[in-house]
Design goal:
The chain is α/β, with parallel strands linked by helices and 458 residues long. The protein is built from 15 helices and 21 strands. The strands form 7 sheets. The protein has a 5-stranded parallel sheet, with helices on one face. Strands 13-12-11-17 form a 4-stranded parallel sheet, with helices on one face. It has a 3-stranded antiparallel sheet with strand order 6-7-8. The radius of gyration is 23 Å and the shape is elongated. Keywords: Membrane, Transmembrane.
Length: 458
């Protein structure tokens, strides 16, 4: 029997991860009393909002009325947009219209912007003048920039010459055009704000991809990373090794460069302590906070910038019935460098460590995603080890029931189909190791995840 194709496996993996990551809020929204008349409003059509809108419909069997409030005609992916800067992709390849979400899943799409939320009346007020009533509200507002943090950006001409490209679309293209216009021998300055900010590794990934393009197109040019933080905030050892090995002449990293303003037609960065720096191309990423709709509703209670939630359900700690997902959330007790994607795993570790006694144990989203990734690799095959891909008949985990089990684990229960396999045993069972153990890299990764969770719960 032949197994599924790599493309089918990848789609299944992405579907499962999307459902798993949103298991908490979706379970709450899809199990509302009186489902037939229940109304869920989703504000924001990014990764979190669009996925939430889809799976509330799916998990409720189409019985919950779901309205997505999103002003844009299509979604433009911020992840992978750095590849546009290096010339390896175009923006069209990262753009997905919302039409399929409406046609395939019956989501009602209101093409307008949410202006305000009346928490008492359970209403969303639209910029166009209408209102939407809800029983549950899912906010996926993304991020906005802290007003006044960089005074020079208030001037439109200056802001245009120093694009942040932290919201994919026109800004991404603007930065790409400025790179193309830069002379050989020029300097690209990437200014990184103090954490927390959206996607901690992304600025360093951007530096690598721009340097990769410079090697081909502007070999005498270089990238100057000006980081407000004391050190690289994510995957530091990996990035530093790559910079030293692959881009020794094209990337220079400087920590503790906290930008406070920009001047001289968007080419001179000013810092709180360090001397001014002039560059041919300035990519200034300003300090960030939760999206304006969340801040305006009083949900940003962590330092006035980020939304605090219960990580079992992603329900706001200050507004019952409102679930906040995505980059807008932050755990007040968490280290500033733990981004939204790492918070569910940290909270899961805290639960397992005995915190919040009497509450159900959280299912670690990161653990389930790790399991799904190992499954995907097993089904695809290990090319380096010349091991064959795992076929459907080799394990019960390879079929639809296996994927369903992964989602059920995230929702708080269910055993895997078959002989009680757990994620940690999957790789060995799949035949990827003659001794029944995970490959060394996978084993180290899973061991490290367990250690991090244990430390967080201590």
């Amino acid at each position: 029997m032949s197994g599924p194709t790599v493309r089918e496996d990848r789609r299944a993996l992405l579907r499962a991860i999307g459902a798993t990551a949103l298991a908490g809020p979706l379970a709450a929204c899809a199990s509302l009393p009186g489902l037939r008349n229940a109304r869920v409003v989703v504000v924001g059509g990014g990764y979190g909002g669009a996925t939430a809108a889809k799976y509330v419909r799916v998990f409720s069997g189409g019985r919950v009325d779901v309205t997505l409030v999103e002003p844009n005609a299509a979604f433009v992916s911020c992840p992978l947009s750095n590849l546009v800067l290096s010339g390896d992709r175009n923006l069209a390849s990262l753009t997905v219209p919302y039409d399929a979400l409406v046609a395939r899943h019956g989501v009602r799409w209101v093409r307008d912007r949410a202006a305000a939320i009346d928490l008492g009346a359970r209403q969303v007020r639209l910029e166009g003048g209408g209102t939407l009533d809800y029983d549950r509200l899912i906010l996926s507002p993304g991020i906005d920039f802290v007003p006044g943090a960089i005074p020079g950006l208030a001037d439109a001409a200056t802001a245009a010459r120093a694009p942040h490209a932290w919201k994919a679309s026109a800004q991404t293209l603007a930065l790409r055009h400025r790179l193309e216009a830069m002379p050989n021998g020029g300097v690209v300055a990437i200014s990184i704000p103090l954490a927390p900010y959206r996607c901690p590794p992304a600025p360093y990934e951007r530096a690598c991809l721009i340097a990769h393009w410079l090697q081909r197109a502007r070999p005498a040019s270089r990238v100057l990373i000006l980081d407000a933080n004391d050190d690289v905030t994510s995957k530091g050892a990996l990035f530093k090794r790559v910079w030293a090995q692959r881009y020794p002449n094209h990337i220079e990293y400087r920590p503790q460069y906290n930008a406070v303003d920009i001047a001289a037609a968007g080419r001179v960065l000013k810092f709180d302590v360090q001397d001014d720096i002039e560059a041919d191309v300035v990519n200034l990423i300003p300090p960030q906070r939760a999206g304006a709709i969340a801040v305006g509703a009083g949900l940003a209670t962590a330092n006035g910038r980020w939304c605090e939630v219960d990580f079992l359900t992603f329900e706001s700690t200050v507004a019952p019935g409102v679930h906040v997902i995505g980059d807008a959330i932050q755990d007040r007790a968490a280290d500033a460098q733990i981004g939204p994607h790492g918070q569910p795993a940290r909270q899961g570790g805290r639960r397992r460590g005995g915190g919040d006694a009497g509450r159900p144990r959280a299912r670690s989203v990161a653990a389930v995603c790790q399991h799904l990734l190992q499954l995907h690799r097993a089904r695809r095959g290990d090319a380096r080890g010349n091991r064959p891909p795992l076929r459907r008949h080799r394990t019960h985990h390879g079929d639809r029931a296996g994927r369903g089990w992964a989602v059920r684990r995230a929702l708080g229960g269910g055993r895997p189909p078959g002989a009680g396999l757990e994620p940690r045993n999957l790789v060995g069972h799949a035949g990827l190791s003659a001794r029944g153990r995970a490959p060394p890299t996978a084993a180290r990764t899973m061991r490290k995840n367990r250690q991090v969770a244990a430390q967080a719960g201590a």
